[in-house]
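FORM 12-B: Structure-to-Sequence Request
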């Protein structure tokens, strides 16, 4: 590992990653490799997570290609120096921001969207001019092995290298001194990454998780809300960091909303979801057992069947769930959706505010005043009004958490800026030198300073 980092540092210091043309050429090579291996990627995702070809392309391959397409179009302008205003105190000077790469980057990616969440930060890092070491998850071995193959075919190891393996490899990587670390995963592991990074004063981006609430009020279109909630919650069997974790709705809305959710589950997944070839599986036995235990919370109002042999759990809706139940103590990260009712909206908002800041929040409402109030009042990473998870799909919005759901952001220009150092440069001219700042000081200098600096 040390030899790889030594080679990458030498390559970076040679300046080979600085020309925008070079970055664009390698992004094009990566795009070609992804397109060439499209069927292989779909197969690997099916083996690891049971993802259908449509879901694999829609949620992983296509979004990775879209991120590359964004930079092929916008990188030349993003990489240019930016001239900003200069105050009168620096008369006849020019203020410039240069976006320079951070250097050698470590990317630790998760298992739930193993291809996308490896490629997107890698694309952002390369667009910004960095070298990179990519460590995909051991929980998705088929996809991780294919990622390694794609990287080896596309990049020399002194530019991008892939390290496979489990916890031991993660620990080894975190002992090295990188210039930046980008981690996607659980809050618990994120804390360990942050602690280890602090030993070298290495800056980090942490993309974590949390219990993302979904509020439905009496002004919502219930049928459409149910359709979009079912899509966002049960996509990838609920193993999505921004999936709606639970629903909050008024007491008198629970029955019509529940009926709409039941209809929509049948509509999207059929009367027997476990027999649906497009419905995936839980990543492993450990997570299957954890999720199965949550089915004892409250009352099963829809779904609830499991298949230990295939590690599958039906899209499930729970009612009569309390805030003290185990399903409400941790991020569910699976196809189980509790509904909790409230008698007043303020009561519900206070409950959300009393918990760690969520990665996402979804609000189904047509009340503009209420929408403005909630989006302003509640602290959360990002979200949607009258939809779920789709804010994740655009390269023109930053994606990231707040508090325990993460720090930093990426996607599009925000990812470019994350992997760049903003170098401030003030260019002074030699033909004029205002003596105001130099000693000896005098009353007229003091008067002028007070006049201009206020």
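FORM 12-B RESPONSE
SEQUENCE OUT:
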């Amino acid at each position: 590992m040390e030899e790889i980092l030594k080679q990458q540092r030498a390559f970076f210091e040679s300046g080979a990653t600085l020309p925008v043309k070079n970055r664009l050429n390698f992004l094009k090579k990566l795009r070609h490799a992804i397109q060439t291996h499209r069927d292989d990627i779909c197969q690997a995702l099916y083996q690891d997570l049971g993802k259908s070809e449509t879901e694999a392309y829609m949620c992983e391959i296509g979004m990775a290609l879209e991120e590359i397409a964004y930079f092929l179009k916008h990188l030349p302008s993003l990489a240019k120096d930016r001239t900003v205003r200069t105050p009168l105190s620096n008369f006849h000077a020019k203020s410039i921001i240069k976006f320079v790469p951070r250097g050698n980057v470590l990317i630790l990616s998760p298992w739930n969207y193993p291809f996308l969440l490896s490629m997107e930060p890698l694309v952002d890092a390369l667009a910004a001019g960095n070298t990179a070491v990519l460590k995909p998850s051991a929980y998705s071995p088929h996809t991780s092995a294919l990622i390694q193959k794609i990287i080896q075919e596309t990049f020399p190891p002194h530019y991008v290298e892939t390290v496979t393996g489990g916890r031991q490899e993660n620990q080894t990587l975190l002992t090295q001194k990188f210039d930046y670390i980008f981690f996607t995963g659980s809050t618990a592991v994120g804390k360990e990454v942050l602690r280890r990074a602090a030993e070298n004063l290495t800056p980090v981006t942490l993309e974590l998780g949390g219990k993302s609430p979904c509020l439905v009020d009496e002004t919502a279109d219930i049928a459409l809300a149910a359709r979009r909630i079912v899509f966002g919650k049960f996509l990838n069997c609920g193993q999505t960091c921004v999936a709606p974790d639970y629903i909050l709705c008024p007491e008198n809305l629970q029955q019509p909303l529940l009926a709409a959710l039941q209809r929509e589950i049948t509509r999207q997944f059929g009367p027997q979801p476990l027999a649906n070839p497009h419905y995936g599986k839980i990543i492993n036995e450990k997570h299957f057992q954890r999720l199965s235990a949550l089915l004892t919370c409250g009352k099963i109002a829809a779904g609830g069947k499991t298949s230990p042999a295939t590690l599958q759990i039906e899209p499930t809706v729970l009612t009569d769930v309390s805030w003290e139940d185990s399903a409400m103590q941790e991020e569910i990260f699976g196809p189980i959706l509790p509904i909790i009712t409230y008698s007043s909206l303020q009561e519900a908002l206070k409950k959300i505010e009393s918990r760690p800041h969520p990665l996402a929040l979804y609000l189904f409402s047509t009340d503009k005043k209420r929408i403005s109030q909630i989006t302003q009042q509640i602290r959360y990473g990002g979200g949607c009004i009258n939809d779920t998870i789709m804010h994740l799909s655009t390269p023109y919005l930053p994606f990231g958490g707040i508090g325990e759901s993460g720090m930093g952001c990426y996607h599009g220009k925000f990812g470019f800026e994350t992997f760049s150092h903003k170098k401030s440069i003030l260019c002074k001219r030699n033909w004029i030198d205002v003596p105001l700042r130099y000693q000896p000081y005098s009353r007229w200098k003091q008067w002028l300073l007070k006049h201009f600096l206020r």
